[in-house]
Write a sequence for this structure.
């Protein structure tokens, strides 16, 4: 089992920045992937960015150049630095951990609200 605890959400004006964190604990070993997803009201959950334990990253087109994902393997923590936030970035952001056997674990979500 893997437990995920997210933090860092909040309310920010358009153009501002926020940094999300997600700390994983439990059965963590081997190659894995951690990522961020988001879900806005009335919309499906979508992938934002993810990073493997070897440091390979992938971003949604909508956030490229504005968001940066990183991780500290010693702390089993993934971060999402969000700059140049837009109103359309408003959503609940979820952290996901994918184990070496492709089992997914989700965090509880953290609200990000961007005001105009």
């Amino acid at each position: 089992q893997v437990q995920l605890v997210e933090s860092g959400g909040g309310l920010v004006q358009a153009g501002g920045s926020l940094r999300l964190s997600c700390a994983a604990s439990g059965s963590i070993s081997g190659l894995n992937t951690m990522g961020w997803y988001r879900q806005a009201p009335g919309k499906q959950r979508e992938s934002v960015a993810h990073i493997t334990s070897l440091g390979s990253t992938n971003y949604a087109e909508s956030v490229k150049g504005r968001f940066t994902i990183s991780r500290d393997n010693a702390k089993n923590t993934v971060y999402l630095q969000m700059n140049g936030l837009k109103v359309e970035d408003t959503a609940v952001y979820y952290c996901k951990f994918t184990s070496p056997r492709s089992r997914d674990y989700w965090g509880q979500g953290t609200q990000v609200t961007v005001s105009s």
Remarks:
- The radius of gyration is 13 Å.
- The mean pLDDT is 96.
- DSSP finds no helices and eleven strands in the chain.
- The longest strand covers residues 18-26.
